[in-house]
């Protein structure tokens, strides 16, 4: 499904607060911007391996589990359900395990040469590891609201500030409001435990306003792209429409077999189909087969 510039009626509806972005949801990595990341598995705890670490922060109840070479970062919901936010294979930590995380890099089809990347939601740091391995020249800012998640990402998932990576322990709304940097690519993947300060999926309400989306758009460099991880929920269509309204141009990708969708948005016109297909071979080679960009493109709606 392609989304062009929204019509006036849609804009009025969004301005009344009916729809607002669902940047991000269910699949891997977590907190920042006001929370955490995304849920891509709801496996019972007994299938997640032995408990290595547990703590309760101001934002979440966090657990780290390990099963062989696989380590998982989970959040415990109020009903006791333990939800996987991120997994890492310790023998190949640069691998993107979650379907949604691979789909987030459909953004490279539209902006194949980002120099500065902003990741909202650090969690287990899957996208940070992927970029530092494949694109070591890219400057990365990762924003995470929860200091506990930052510590866990460092100690258990090997993701920390240094070199081309800066980690900012701050609310994403405040960061985007104050930053003077301009980004070629912004990856939105922030979640919290569902509460009165979030929508039903855990997206912080501060990240769903047209005002925030407008500030996010202003943080883009010319030709910049934003990718939003969005979880299946009752208001998903409204959230997609809100992004299209705020940015002017958006396209939606599926993340099979998960129910997530990824929205790719830009202020300027998006790349044509012919240009997208022409970029596939070079991108596949550049990432050494770690991603199939042709497969990603086939999942566009």
The largest pleated sheet is described as: 8 strands, mixed
Order of helices and strands: EHEEEEHHEHEHEHEHEHEEHH
Low-confidence sequence ranges: 1-45
CATH class of the largest domain: Alpha Beta
**How many β-strands, per DSSP?**
12
Assign the CATH architecture of the largest domain: 3-Layer(aba) Sandwich
The proportion of residues in beta strands is: 25-35%
User: How large is the count of helical segments?
Assistant: 10
Tell me roughly what share of residues is in helical segments.
Answer: 25-40%
Radius of gyration: 18 Å
Report on this model:
This protein is of the alpha/beta class and 301 residues long. It has 2 domains: 238 residues, 3-Layer(aba) Sandwich (Rossmann fold), CATH 3.40.50.150; 45 residues, no CATH class. The chain is built from 10 helices and 12 strands. The strands form 2 sheets. It has an 8-stranded mixed sheet, sandwiched between helices. Strands 2-3-4-5 form a 4-stranded antiparallel sheet, covered by helices on one side. Strand 6, helix 4 and strand 7 form a beta-alpha-beta unit. Helix 7 packs across helix 8. It is globular and about 50 Å long.
């Amino acid at each position: 499904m392609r989304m062009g510039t929204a019509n006036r009626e849609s804009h009025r509806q969004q301005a009344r607060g009916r729809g607002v972005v669902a940047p991000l949801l269910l699949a891997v990595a977590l907190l920042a911007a006001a929370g955490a990341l995304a849920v891509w598995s709801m496996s019972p705890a007994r299938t997640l391996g032995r408990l290595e670490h547990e703590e309760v922060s101001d934002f979440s109840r966090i657990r780290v589990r390990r099963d062989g070479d696989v380590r998982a970062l989970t959040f415990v919901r109020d009903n006791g359900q333990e939800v996987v936010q991120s997994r890492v294979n310790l023998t190949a930590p640069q691998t993107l395990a979650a379907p949604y995380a691979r789909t987030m890099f459909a953004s490279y089809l539209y902006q194949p040469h980002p120099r500065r990347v902003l990741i909202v939601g650090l969690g287990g740091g899957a996208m940070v590891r992927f970029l530092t391995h494949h694109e070591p020249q890219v400057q990365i800012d990762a924003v995470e609201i929860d200091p506990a998640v930052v510590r866990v990402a460092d100690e258990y998932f090997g993701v920390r500030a240094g070199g081309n990576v800066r980690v900012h322990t701050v609310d994403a709304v405040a960061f985007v409001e104050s930053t003077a940097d301009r980004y070629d690519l912004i990856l939105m993947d922030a979640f919290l435990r569902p509460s009165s300060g979030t929508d039903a999926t855990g997206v912080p309400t501060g990240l769903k306003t047209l005002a925030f989306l407008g500030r996010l758009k202003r943080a883009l460099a010319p030709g910049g792209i934003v990718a939003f991880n969005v979880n299946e929920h009752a208001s998903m269509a409204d959230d997609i429409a809100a992004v299209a309204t705020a940015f002017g141009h958006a396209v939606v990708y599926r993340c099979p077999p998960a129910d997530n969708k990824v929205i790719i948005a830009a202020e300027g016109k998006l790349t044509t189909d012919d240009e997208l297909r022409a970029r596939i071979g070079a991108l596949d080679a550049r990432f050494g087969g770690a991603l199939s960009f042709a497969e990603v493109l086939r999942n566009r709606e």
